[in-house]
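Example record

The entry below shows one chain as it appears in the dataset: sequence first, then structure tokens.
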Amino acid sequence: MEKAIGSKVNLKNMEDMLAVEYMSCVWDLMDEKKIQKLDEHVQHCNTSRLQHSINVSYYSFLICRFMGWDYRSAARAGLLHDMFYYDWRVTKGNRTNHASWHPRVAYDNARKITELNKIEKDAILKHMWPCTLVPPKYKESYVLTFVDKTCAVMEVAGQKWNKVKASFAN
């Protein structure tokens, strides 16, 4: 992925200081095979789980950077927060509430590929609050939680808007 949806910043442009700063937070994760595999799974409408994770990661990074908070942890947790490999619309099983239990699956998968600090762990495990009942502990976790919801709405609304525009073009 070259950029977050809605952003003009090409994350591969190493002449753009914002791209360089963001990538310095997540460079070791971006080429990880288990992260790239997220591109094979749909998250919202036609948005892949990898694209969604980049969206959440990048916008959480921007907000935390602007606020002077731990933007590195926010960026990394955003990239890892939905690290699961099944279609949540279809897969059932013993657990019936995907919204409340997939953060644990993502956390278990994330810690297999990188060491997580306390903010990253909290943000991943609690990004579905209030479905997870226990609220986030850190301000960066709250940012990721709200950015995740905003990105999900924009990804779905963007797809719907594109269909409406296409119907007017015909």
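Notes for this example: The longest strand covers residues 42-44. The chain is about 60% helix and 5% strand.
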